[in-house]
Design brief:
The complex is a heterodimer. By secondary structure, chain A is an all-alpha fold. Chain A has a single domain, classed as MetI-like fold, CATH 1.10.3720. The longest helix of chain A has 37 residues. In chain B, strand 9 and strand 10 form a beta hairpin. A six-stranded mixed sheet of chain B has the order 6-7-8-3-9-10, sandwiched between helices. Chain B contains twelve helices and twelve strands. By secondary structure, chain B is an alpha/beta fold. In chain B, 30% of the residues lie in helices and 21% in strands. In chain B, helix 5 crosses helix 6, helix 5 runs parallel beside helix 7 and helix 7 packs parallel to helix 8. The chains are: A mainly alpha, B alpha/beta. The interface between A and B is medium-sized, with 28 and 37 residues.
């Protein structure tokens, strides 16, 4: 495998699984981020086993500091903070994954379609994209939630829809570059239909930058969800959302300082982990920086 | 636009390669290939024209056209190889792509195995009769698919057999081009250039086509690897009786592989004939200039080197008379006025020149 790596031409921008893996593992932020993210995912998946208490039930006196029974203390209703943070991880990651995958599932096909077919389809898709991008992401989400009502599904929809244009632009740009490549011509010469070429040949080859964009979108979505919960438009109480916890904790800063600090720390760790993974992937895939600005500055 | 029509119609009564069935020339075909040939060409291209429109302004008004291919006609017989040679920009690649309809021809007809190919011909029907091998072996393979999956792609597109059968067939094809079964799971990036081109050739064979268009299949490879790939092509042709349209700028490669050779200049065929005729007795001054540029592996060999002056004229506004006149050492007044048609003149093979003749002749 190493000899094959040496003799292949450096000019061709090629995705080779072994190289990608090696480069990712050589990137410190990538490895650190991946480890932390893995832990967070495990926490989210096994939340019922990890959390000592039900996050929605009383587990002691209200607003207590850390103790042997309530490791991070309790909130104003006497609920165990550690358990609420653990379940909050699940909520955050669900929102992040939901929004990012929704945006990708809609944006990637539209971008490929738009780039490959061109013409009026391209014109319509791009105008709608411009329209969505012209509205600030957080405002867009606010309006959608105002229309749809709050709740995790609507939160995912609101954030996910706002993130679609970035995926459209990214996959459209990749498609424009790919459609003159000889392997696409080769597929055409084999008699492949346009749908087949788009689905089997073009879409898989746009995946490099798209994967990075999924990670970026996920971290933006977590911040946006926290921000929306903070102003009372995210997941409604009593759901243990980190943003919601930050919001209520403001009233009790003098009684229970950990109540305010810990959700913030959890948010920071999650965002940092996603950012690390994103950077590691960019290094490994050789894609240029996909700036946050593309998502519409929702954080 | 009107130019295109004029060119398409004007010369349509001229000589076609069709009236030269195989074996009638002084050709030196290997014995194995004779038995696979028939008198009907497997591929007949007539008066093929491809103009790329140049559009300007808000409404995309056509202000001109790049004359990439103008009135190209040739026949290709089963088990034979026709070489299409010319310098960069001579239209040889566009000719190949127009034949397999990767670009839609502006005018002209292509008959594959006796049936005309039109814009209505289903892409899948076309692909069953004709396939293509591209110049860049890395760029023409899907980088995300393994070698065996790449070769199985045409079979998948044509829904031939089950996934398992397709893999088996693809592995068999890869074996035929000299790739071991334990290598087939690798992705293209993990192969050398020559191996990649073998994969490309295996893929072109997958649907058992009658014709394969080879667009500079060896020019991106090292010389030693080139020879292996060319020998592989020869062997496959004598085994399978496939006809090759071999597009190349490398005359020594063309000599090695082709039975017939068509020389292209600025979108037109200027001379067409059996390999031996073209290489030992070229009649067109352009062909002679091309041949004089081929290195001879003999330091003592003496010959006259014809150095062409000037550059290829613009294909947007080609010269009115002979397109080669501006660079030709034999050009006279008539050459700037009247375009010479491709027909048999002094020698054995058709040539598009007012003053054809052996190299060095005054003309």
């Amino acid at each position: 495998m190493t000899t094959a790596a040496k003799e292949s031409s450096a000019a061709a921008p090629v995705i080779r699984r072994a190289t990608v893996r090696r480069k990712f593992l050589g990137s410190a932020p990538g490895v650190a981020g991946a480890i932390v993210l893995l832990i967070l995912v495990l926490v989210a998946v096994f939340a019922p086993l990890i959390a000592p208490f039900d996050p929605l039930e009383r587990a002691g006196k209200a607003l207590q500091g850390p103790s042997a029974q309530n490791w991070f203390g309790t909130d104003e209703l006497g609920r165990d903070l550690f358990s609420r943070l653990v379940y909050g991880t699940r909520l955050s990651l669900e929102t992040a994954a939901g929004a990012a995958l929704l945006a990708c599932a809609v944006g990637l096909p539209l971008g490929v379609l738009s780039g490959y077919l061109g013409g009026w389809i391209d014109a319509i898709v791009m105008r709608v994209t411009d329209f969505v991008l012209a509205v600030p992401g957080i405002l867009f989400a606010l309006v959608l939630i105002a229309i749809l009502g709050s709740g995790i599904i609507n939160l995912i929809l609101a954030i996910g829809i706002g993130a679609i244009p970035a995926f459209i632009r990214l996959s459209r740009a990749s498609t424009l570059g790919l459609k003159e490549r000889e392997y696409v011509l080769a597929a055409r010469s084999m008699g492949a239909s346009k749908a087949d070429i788009m689905a089997r040949t073009i879409a898989p080859n746009t995946m490099g930058p798209i994967i990075v964009q999924i990670i970026v979108t996920a971290s933006v979505a977590i911040l946006a969800a926290a921000a929306l919960s903070f102003i009372g438009l995210g997941t409604p109480p009593p759901a243990p959302s980190w943003g919601g916890m930050l919001q209520t904790s403001r009233s009790f800063l003098y009684q229970q300082i950990w109540y305010a600090i810990l959700p913030g720390v959890a948010l920071a760790i999650t965002i940092a982990a996603l950012d690390g993974v994103g950077r590691g992937l960019q290094t490994a895939l050789g894609t240029k920086t996909t700036g946050r600005a593309k998502v519409g500055g929702m954080g | 636009m009107t130019d295109a029509e004029k060119l398409a119609e004007g010369d349509s009564t001229e000589v076609h390669d069709a009236d030269r069935p195989p074996g009638s020339g002084t050709g030196t075909q290997p014995a194995a290939q004779i038995e696979t040939t028939s008198t009907e060409p497997v591929l007949r291209v007539q008066n093929l024209v491809k103009h790329f429109p140049i559009r300007r302004g808000v409404f995309g008004k056509q202000v001109g056209a790049i004359h990439a291919v103008d009135d190209v006609s040739f026949d290709l017989y089963a088990g034979r190889t026709l070489g299409l040679v010319g310098e960069s920009g001579s239209g040889k690649t566009t000719t190949g792509r127009a034949v397999i309809r990767l670009v839609e021809p502006t005018a002209g007809s292509v008959m594959l195995d006796g049936r005309p190919l039109t814009a209505e011909t289903r892409a899948k029907d076309l692909a069953r009769g004709m396939s293509m091998v591209f110049q860049d072996p890395m760029g023409s393979l899907n980088p995300r698919l393994s070698a065996v999956a790449n070769v199985a792609e045409p079979l998948r597109i044509h829904k031939s057999g089950t996934a398992v059968e397709r893999r088996a067939r693809a592995t068999e094809l890869l074996d035929q081009v000299g790739l071991r079964a334990d290598q087939v799971e690798r992705v293209p990036a993990e192969f050398s250039g020559g191996q990649r081109q073998r994969i490309g050739i295996a893929r072109a064979l997958a649907l058992s086509p009658k014709v394969i268009i080879l667009d500079e299949p060896a020019s991106a490879l090292d010389v030693s690897v080139q020879a292996q790939v060319l020998n592989l092509l020869r062997r496959l042709q004598s085994d399978l009786g496939i006809a090759f349209l071999f597009i190349s700028h490398d005359l020594s490669v063309v000599r090695h592989l082709c039975d017939r050779v068509a020389v292209m200049y600025l979108g037109e065929i200027v001379e067409i004939g059996d390999q031996e005729q073209i290489f030992t007795n070229p009649l067109h001054p352009y062909t002679q200039a091309l041949l004089s540029a081929v290195p001879i592996p003999d330091p003592d060999a003496k010959r006259e080197r014809i150095v062409l002056k000037g550059d290829l004229p613009s294909p947007v506004d080609p010269p009115a008379g002979c397109r080669f006149a501006g660079r030709c050492h034999r050009a006279q007044d008539i050459c700037d006025v009247e375009a010479p048609v491709l027909k048999i003149r002094t020698g054995a093979q058709p040539v598009a020149c007012h003053f054809p003749g052996p190299a060095g002749g005054a003309g």
